[in-house]
Design a protein that fits this description.
This protein is an alpha/beta fold. Helices cover 39% and strands 9% of the residues. It folds into two domains: 51 residues, no CATH class; 160 residues, Rossmann fold. It has a five-stranded parallel beta sheet, with helices on both faces.
């Protein structure tokens, strides 16, 4: 069965064992046409860009734990914070001044260009969208490929290593946020520009059409 890697080759490079046998198609982006909620849009415009924190479909003890650390890590200095409730239900109860909860599905591509940084779990979709937005990131992986994404972004000079969602401390998260905001923005901007010019979906379609036309595509492994 033919293989294709839906990722950016420079950020998530191939193994030398299969680099010449598996093609890349860059990230696949869903171009969500929805607008941001009007109240959220107004809130974003009313102050400094906030830090967005969201862990998508991650839930369980690790996300319950991190919810208690966020206030300690982010509430100092009057920083605005936007919490993506997600499956973890972040933001339950009273919030510090300048904090807000985004409940429900928010179009990340439109949101991430308007925030100061994104703290997330390192899922492929969130990571790719934040990369294309050119926004500073802090990845707190929990499972599977999330650890790989965190390591690759660190190696590419695009994000600090912050530890896992299960083990990060409030002080560690605070340091990681300060570190990502202080990083040289040029590698991040270069990656964003490259990804904005990519079209992984078109490359994938070309490959599928070649298969349908009966062209022989070598298998990924000998």
């Amino acid at each position: 069965m033919p293989w294709l890697v839906a990722a950016d080759r420079e950020i998530l490079p191939p193994s030398s064992e299969w680099a010449s046998r598996v093609p890349y198609a860059s990230f696949l982006y869903y171009e969500d046409e929805r607008r941001l909620d009007a109240e959220l849009d107004d809130w974003l415009a009313a102050g400094d860009p906030p830090v967005f924190v969201g862990f998508g479909s991650m839930s369980g003890d690790a996300t319950t734990r991190i919810g208690g650390l966020l206030r300690q890590a982010l509430s100092s200095g009057g920083r605005r914070v936007l919490l993506g409730a997600g499956w973890a239900g972040l933001g339950a109860g009273d919030l510090p001044p300048g904090w807000r909860v985004a409940v429900g599905d928010v179009p990340h591509a439109k949101l991430f260009t308007r925030v100061a940084a994104v703290i997330h779990h390192g899922g492929s979709g969130t990571t790719a969208t934040a990369l294309r937005a050119g926004v500073p990131q802090v990845l707190l992986p929990l499972i599977l490929d999330q650890y790989h994404h965190a390591a690759c972004l660190h190696r590419a000079g695009l994000a600090p290593l912050a530890g896992s969602l299960e083990k990060v401390t409030a002080e560690g998260l605070r340091r990681a946020l300060d570190a990502t905001l202080a990083m040289d923005p040029r590698p991040r901007q270069a990656a964003a520009q490259r990804l904005r010019g990519s079209d992984g979906a078109a490359l994938l379609a070309d490959r599928l059409e070649a298969l349908a036309a009966g062209e022989r595509i070598p298998p990924p492994f000998a």
